[in-house]
Amino acid sequence: MKTCLVVDDSSVIRKVARRILEGLDFQIVEAEDGEKALEVCKRAMPEAVLLDWNMPVMDGYEFLGNLRRMPGGDAPKVVFCTTENDVAHIARALHAGANEYIMKPFDKDIVTAKFQEVGLI
C-alpha cells in the first residue's frame, strides 16, 4: 500500500484528505506543518505528499525545498494545495519541485484526477 503524507495546518482539511485518500487505497500520515512533515520523511519517505502552501512554523515552499534536498527526497510525488490562483504562485511551486497542484476547496474527483496525472493511481 502506498503512503501519502498529508501536510496542512487545518485538522478539517487533513480529515477530508484522509477520507478521500484512504478511499484510493493510500495509507495516511499527517503533519500540521512543514517542520513536522520533514520529521515524518526522515523516518520513512512517503510515495506521495499532499501539501498545503500556507502554514505556520515552516510553509509548503520551505518544506518542499528541504524535502527535495534530502536523500530520496526527489522520489515522492508532491501535489500542493492552495487557495491562490495566480499563475506566478503556481509557477513558483512547480519550479520548487511540486509535481501538480490542487485548488482549495477540493473533492474526491479532483484529488483522483491529479493523483492519476502524476502516476500515483
From TrEMBL:
Stretches assigned to the Response regulatory domain: 3-119
Pfam families for this protein: Response_reg
Statement: the UniProt record of this protein carries the keyword Transcription: yes
Residues recorded as bearing 4-aspartylphosphate in the entry: 52
Record-linked CDD domains: REC_hyHK_CKI1_RcsC-like
GO terms of biological process kind: phosphorelay signal transduction system
Superkingdom of source: Bacteria
Keyword set, alphabetical order: Phosphoprotein, Transcription, Transcription regulation
Protein name, per record: Two-component system response regulator
